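Table S7 (text form). Paired inputs.
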Amino acid sequence: MSGVKDEDDESVSKNGQTKRGGDPGASRHGNFINYYQFHPAEERVRQLPRELLIPNRPGQNFVALDVGCNSGDLTIELHKFLSENLPDRKVSILGIDLDPVLIERAQEKNYHPELVRFECLDFLSDNRESIVADYLSQRQVDRFDLSFCLSVTMWVHANTGDAGLEHLLTELCSMSESVLLEPQPWRCYRAASRRLRRAGQPELDLDRLKHRSDDQLLRFMNSVISDQAGFHRTHTSAENDWGRRLMLFQRSSQWSGQVE
């Protein structure tokens, strides 16, 4: 990307300026304590494709999932966004994160617990299914209308390998009508590993990964979501200030139109 001072540093924007909050520090699972200082939730919401998030499935409830919700700022903004764009639906959202400290912070700032819920949960853990099934059952739906997985795929991929990333995507599709992804480019993998090294921690084991470039990563994720799960990619955003794109995938039964 042109104009970037150091392509391996996530805290530098496309125009070469240091982002708000500066260097995020080192993290093995992406659970940065100050994440929203350098990726403000309001800016993320402005990128959402409003015309593509309107549900085709009838019903009173609109139920969403935010995987890797951190301290909840973006989850709360997502609920506000969905509620404003779906005035005739009762919108509820479940935010999950594997860090108990971040979830505690999210719960403290949650002023609408009847509509926004936070759970400390590893999406790939064995107890996820029962918690998610109970949440959906309480809202009388079989699947989430929309699941957000924003800047999460790298952490699952780097820590659990190609099979872990495939498992994340297939499981996410199995419980969702639509999935909105914001995958990290390969430079972010290198940046995360380098920050761990600088902090005196073991680096991420990137050599074991088969899919190790932007093109390979996108082809792999498209293959899993489209070929295996039967979803259509119906929207890809322009690149944002931190060099990532939003990709919306919709279940075939809920989709009509042109495939990207």
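Next pair, protein 2 of 2.
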Amino acid sequence: MKTLVIVTHPNLETSTINKRLVEELNKFPEKYTVHDLYKTYPDGNIDVKSEQRLVESHANLVFQFPIFWFNCPPLLKKWLDDVLTYGWGYGSSSGNQMKHRKVALAVSTGIRREEYSSDGKYKYSLEQLLAPFETTFHYCNSDYRSFFAVYGKEGDEASTVEDNRPTTNLLEVRAHEYLRFIDTL
């Protein structure tokens, strides 16, 4: 079965990192279903049953999003709250749709990897900041497989273009590594 990649970026067309990762995924429609939440639900009203059926029809699930204020975009939080319901995603004998499902995250940051550490500017690792997602999926008895990250280079002009995006070459490498990450879930 295919992998469902739920992309949650409020303006994917102007994104550099997430847009490039989606372009790479779209080259292989036989392997990946790309589901853009902001495009599907511009009004924020999520069709819960439709989303649940979509998840059920895929073996693996990847949530792809930019880190916003050290968390996910609001529509992804709403998706998690609305879709992972008691009796479907967890909590009862019939609520097992997330049980053993392989789940991973794919995140992008505007910050260098070094800044995500106890010695860095933000004092916490990306693993620590993403722990609530891991906890959520463990609570649903999913098979959480960690995360793939594309770090930005805030303030590092040698490695980035002027607006903190990774260089084209680095982004091309990371896009191919992303597919390998998903394929090994």
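Helices lie at 17-26, 37-40, 48-56, 74-83, 126-129, 131-139, 168-183.
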